[in-house]
Write a structure and sequence with these properties.
Layout lengths: L1 H13 L2 H8 L33 H10 L10 H6 L31 H6 L2 H5 L9 H15 L1 H4 L6 H14 L1 H8 L18 H12 L8 H12 L10 H17 L16 H12 L8 H8 L9 H36 L1 H86 L9 H8 L1
């Protein structure tokens, strides 16, 4: 509106005086008013659909910070800046963040908060604003004692049924019991989403790192019940034994400490790492998540979905049936949870550049081994072929020599037979000639039988 007035003044100043009156005397069109029918809102409240809207933006953060008493309404005004010497916090959350100057955050005043604000606080924030989810049992007990000093009915005078004190008491009863705390921690403030398939390699560490870190909350090493048991064991004093064998006792203690330090459960789970992480650590990380042991307990969530209050059962049969229904839903939620973890691990392993490089390296090595094996087989086959050719040549030569020897021996034998036959014929002729000369009247000289007996 101001810019329109400025432009009008500028145009009027640039306009000649004789035309100004004509402009002012021009008839202005009357506004057109159109009637709009009323909105058709459903008369039944149940017909309205509930929709969850994710609020975001600096304006919403400023609204939430004022709602949770983290900064006042005039935080961004010039009056607030003048009072604080112009040192206004640029954070959209405002208030006492306690970051740069090391100041602690201002505690919530539950007595001045509305029921809606109290419903948005977790049990940890109810006991103490800065109480972390991994707080020990002793820290929870101390925070409860401080809250009792502030919100106990004897201090506030609001009676035993004060909703603030009952909320504080319910928070302590839940967080002090390891099993109840496990059920509560399993459902409070947790994002179950996992990255979709097709994440680029350059975005792998930025996308999957926070997801694994977020799900590490339910690892067995972070089990609240186990931590409470360890704290209880640590608080229990060990009885002193009298004896003179101190060296043996110290040696046994050192061995136990070494065994504990080397056990996988005592150390921290493998880290997600980065592009320079050793491959052994990467395999250890995925092996940890493939065999992930989750302590997440869905008892409370299953009871809420089943809408069964076991304590309000009329008889034992109804109570048993309610427990069975809750157990059935709880087991289904547990299966869905493990399927979600398996999907997360499979998707991460599919796009992990470190595993891809290792897979390519193994494929290259396998190919090289196959080529080397094939080459060795070819060389072996060629060597066997050459040896076989040499052996065949030797056998052929040997066979030819034997055949030639046989032929020579046969020829010599035939020659000897021929010479023997000629010698026999010559001897026969000589013998006949001599016999005829001595016995001219003997007619049996031509009988062959006689000569055969003679030859024998």
């Amino acid at each position: 509106k101001q810019s329109l007035n400025i432009r009008t003044e500028q145009s009027n100043n640039a306009m000649p005086p004789e035309h100004k009156e004509e402009v002012y005397n021009m008839p202005h069109p009357e506004p057109i008013i159109t009637s709009v029918s009323s909105l058709d809102w459903p008369t039944d409240d149940d017909a309205l659909e509930d929709t969850i809207i994710q609020c975001a933006g600096t304006s919403y953060l400023a609204y939430e910070s004022r709602l949770l008493n983290r900064r006042d309404f005039l935080h961004t005004s010039s009056f607030y800046q003048s009072e604080n010497g112009g040192n206004d916090a640029a954070s959209p959350l405002g208030g006492n963040t306690g970051g740069e100057n090391g100041e602690k955050k201002k505690e919530y005043d539950l007595l001045t908060m509305s029921e809606r604000k109290l419903g948005k606080l977790s049990y940890y924030q109810v006991l103490q604003r800065s109480l972390p989810m991994h707080a020990s049992t002793e820290e929870i007990r101390k925070a409860y004692h401080k809250a009792c000093l502030k919100y106990h009915p004897d201090k506030t005078g609001r009676g035993e049924e004060d909703e603030v004190f009952l909320l504080v008491k319910a928070a302590f009863d839940t967080l002090s019991d390891p099993m109840k705390r496990r059920s509560y921690d399993s459902t409070v403030d947790f994002d179950e989403s996992i990255p979709k398939e097709g994440v680029k390699e350059e975005d792998f560490y930025k996308v999957y790192g926070p997801v694994f870190e977020r799900n590490m909350r339910f690892a067995s090493c972070n089990d609240p019940a186990k931590q409470a048991g360890n704290e209880a064991e640590g608080d229990t004093p060990t009885p002193k034994k009298k004896g003179k064998n101190k060296k043996k006792k110290n040696r046994n203690n050192n061995n136990n400490n070494d065994a504990k330090s080397q056990s996988p459960s005592s150390g921290r789970p493998p880290l997600f790492g980065d592009d320079s992480t050793p491959l052994s650590q990467v395999h250890a990380f995925y092996d940890f998540w493939i065999h992930f042991d989750s302590w997440r307990d869905f008892t409370l969530k299953a009871a809420e979905e089943a809408e069964h209050d076991v304590e309000s059962a009329d008889c034992r049969e109804e109570k048993r049936w309610m427990k069975q229904e809750i157990d059935r839903k709880m087991k289904k939620m547990k299966r869905d949870e493990m399927a979600r973890i398996n999907s997360l691990v499979e998707r991460a392993m599919a796009v992990d550049p470190r595993l891809k490089r290792e897979k390519e390296r193994l494929a290259t090595e396998k190919k090289q081994k196959e080529e080397a094996k094939k080459k060795a087989e070819e060389e072996k086959a060629e060597k066997e072929r050459k040896e076989r050719e040499i052996m065949e040549k030797e056998l052929a030569t040997k066979k030819a020599e034997e055949e030639s020897k046989k032929k020579g021996a046969k020829k010599i034998k035939e020659q000897q037979k021929k010479q023997l036959r000629k010698a026999k014929q010559l001897f026969r002729k000589l013998t006949m000639s001599a016999y005829q000369a001595t016995n001219p009247n003997d007619n049996s000289i031509g009988n062959d039988a006689v000569w055969d007996d003679l030859e024998k």
